[in-house]
Amino acid sequence: MGPGNLAVRRPVTMLMLMLVVILLGAISLNHLSLELLPRFEPPVLAVYTNWGQASPQETATMITEPLEQVVATIGGLKEVSSISAEGSSVIICELAWGANLDAARDEIKERIGLIPLPDDAGQPMVLRYDPTTMPGLRLSVWGDVDEDRLETVVRDVLLPGLESVPGVASVDISGLNEQQVQVTVSQPDLAELGMDLGTLANMIRAGNVLMPAGTVANDESEYSVRVVGEFDCLEELGRVVVGRNSDGFVLLDQVADIADGRAPGASIVRTNGQQSLGLAVRKEGDANLVRVNRDVMSRLEELSGQLDEVEVVVTMNQAEFIEEAIQGIGTNLLVGAGLAVLVLLTLMQSILSTLIIAVAIPFSVVATFVMMHFGGLTLNLMSMGGLALGVGMLVDNSIVVIENIYRHIQGGASTAEAAARGTNEVAGAITASTLTTLAVFLPVVFVGGVTGELFRELAWTVSFSLLASLLVAITVIPMLASRILPYGRWNQALRPRSSRSTYARMVRGALRRRGLVLLVALGLVAVSAIPFLYLGREFLPAIDEGSFNISVTLPPGASLSATDTVAADLEALLATHPDVDIYSTRVGPGGGVSMSEGGKNTASIDVRLLPPEQRASETDAVVAWVRGEAEKLLSPDVEFAVASQDQFSSMAGSDNLQLEVRGPSLEEVQRLSLEFLEDLQTVPELGEATSNLEQQLPEKKVVLDRQRVAALGLMPAQVATQVNAAMGGVFATRLNRDGNNLDVQVQYRPEDIDNPDKLRHLSISLPGGHNLPLIMLADIEDGQGPISIHRSRQQPAAQITAPILSGDLGSAIAEVEALIERVQLPGGYSASVTGSGQLMQEGFQSLYGALALAVVLVYALMAGLFESLLHPLVIIISLPLAAVGALWLLLVGGHALGITAMIGLIMLAGIVVNNAIVMVTAINQLRGEGMPVREAIATGAAMRLRPILMTAFTTVLAMLPLALGIGSGAELQAPLATAVIGGLLSSTVMILVVVPVTYSLFAGRRHV
């Protein structure tokens, strides 16, 4: 008993199964999490170590290199690189995809724990990079209040309120200068007491005591003893004895100013030109970002009554874009499904038969939700894009089934008999065609790296939906046809056979001119080389999220205030554009473990535009305006860049090309990098290139006279400690006031160290209470040092970055690689493209292999279906025919050949063969009934004309909204849909003639 018989004889069973699937689908949809991208964790670990104000050179020598040597021995390590900056070291450990990150992290922790580091260096931290924990919501807080009140509202109201929202992992504050108690002393006064800042800090620390001192007991009781001498107010701190003179004891408040203050700002944060604090809300790893952000916004409304004059503004809400993108793709899915149904109605001219086939779309989608839920997938741009891309193919199997049922009804069979027999006859063919489509996605599922992680859910979703459509076609469709068709007049309404007869005559004519047909087909395939050569190459297409970033870099050594002045000028410029909604500025380093945050000479402005319906300009137009106006506004020595922001390009860095030069000697690497910088200016696709070694930070070198220092009873480290304390102050202790622990910072007056010349006269405390100026112990030299030191594979490296002006990453890579070949590198030195270029090359290599494997799998499945080695070759010939339309339409549509377009070409390998399979199956059936070869070819091809046209047109029109890039986030699927549409159109037209001709060539040969 075939599936058709079961479906026709057990309609109640089929109906109950449908209801169960619909119920499970609704439940599954409610449990599917909304995300921007599929969840994946790059196999990257970072070892971060802090070391005060140590120079990049010292950090590299004392911290980075010893840790690198240990980390490099970890099993499964693919690549190790590092960045050493002032006071911080980051070692990036890239492991193979699929590696056990927990085990690797534990092993790294264990091994680096055995490495001796400088005493004042921080404990190395091993961190994992998890994209799902990146901030999904950013808030700016400001108001017409002082900084103390603003901090109180943030710490006492907003932080507790937001962190208690279910799903929120943390809320981080930026732009806040911590409260502290500042003990400011003049250098002459301290020198008169015969001490330095470190000694004064020790005396304050010794005066702040709260410690257990054991117990005391008598015959009846035992008492704990505590020594209490803890500071709880500034007055108590001021009564600390710091020395003696002829008048008696010298108290701290006699020689120092003691006052509440704030730590010097490492960075400045503003929103719309007003000083503000930033809040970054991070969700828990498995939490639903959309639901979490929605709950956070509701909590803000509840807290609004406690904020007084403080205002909270959303500067970034990733959930908004996710909802817009998912809704946009959902709309495209509905529009595509509507267009597909319209095609069916137009070609079939029967409402009942169209409705029967149309059932396959919603039912298959609902069934897909069930499989997505149990498969651990989420609703994101990729999975929803897969549904939208596959919606047109969901009716393909049903069309073939309903057409065959109609053929049997025309032959005189009853509706029930026609439904059962017609379904059974084509069940094998549509199963084979579905499996061939699924076969092309199997290699995609196993593609590694970022490409595989991004597109794996798309492949699973399309596969799930096609499996569901197959089950619908062989169960639901025959059941409905057997029950509904008798009440309709669809058999009289169908189109006449004139089109079939015309097509049959055309096939017979092509069989008489086989050489000409094949020559034309080969010519068209050859012509497809033209768009292949002219198509640009990219990793991922840019997505317009209605935001962009402005980055500014002043010459090395520029002060924070100088950078702030430039940032303020740009803010004033942004305020004049009517389409700008919010701009958030950060001047100076952003802190954290990222080495890309810059220094005091850098500023970054994140700009969010008004919603598309409220603004007159596209994001690219606003970016171009800002770039043009900024060139007029800024001085030539200020570097700036304006770039659109989106999650994909920022992840891949596709706006820039990166070149890495590495070798044993830092000096030689620097020389080679300068040579590459000059050569890169000749590459027309690239803008002005920069190198991390190109700019040097001005510095003052204190070169100690070791003999002089030793003669005065000092060690070099003691002198260095005093100099370091004079520059940045010294932490002494903590003052507990009203439950708040405030740092007590001991420092010189600003006027004592307000210019480099005063460094020469810095008072150095000697044993015995004497003092000497620093110039008596050392020479002060001007010098330069690198802002940061990069290392790759345990060798010094230079990172060269150049903007891609043409947008064609592939051409830029080819030019740079040719340039590398021309440069004569010394032995032991190498240069290679990294970043987005490397990702694109790895992605293309993986997908080329996936495409080849897909073709092999399709051939193997068809060989098993036809039990022939020759008939599959007839069908495989249709693949090059699809490339003709795909490449030309990509070129005409203005798309580049990127990863998404490549996925489209792989999809074509499974889609276009389906029509050929259906045609060849029909021809074989007629030949099996004894019909002559040529007549069987013409008749069989004509029999399958309408199913072929309907399946092609429904798929094309269903994908049309995605190809047009309608809706938020549609830019990602547009190249994929364009490639599929172009390939289907060209292959469908040519298959109708080329497949019959090639079949006739093999018809006289043995099948095996």
Can you tell me about this structure?
The chain is an alpha+beta fold and 1008 residues long. Among the domains are: 1-31 and 349-494, Multidrug efflux transporter AcrB transmembrane fold (Up-down Bundle); 44-129, Multidrug efflux transporter AcrB pore domain (Alpha-Beta Plaits); 133-179 and 277-317, 2-Layer Sandwich (Alpha-Beta Plaits), CATH 3.30.70.1320; 495-543 and 836-1008, Multidrug efflux transporter AcrB transmembrane fold; 546-645, Multidrug efflux transporter AcrB pore domain (Alpha-Beta Plaits, 2-Layer Sandwich), CATH 3.30.70.
Tally of separate helices: 35
Mean pLDDT: 83
Q: Using the coordinates above, name the CATH class of the domain at 495-543 and 836-1008.
A: Mainly Alpha
Could you name the CATH topology of the domain at 495-543 and 836-1008?
A: Multidrug efflux transporter AcrB transmembrane fold
Tertiary shape: elongated
Classify the secondary structure makeup into a structural class. Answer: alpha+beta
Total number of strands: 31
Main beta-sheet annotation:
9 strands, antiparallel
Ranges where pLDDT stays below 50 over 5 or more residues in a row are 487-496, 591-597
Distance between the termini: 30 Å
Please name the CATH architecture of the domain at 495-543 and 836-1008: Up-down Bundle
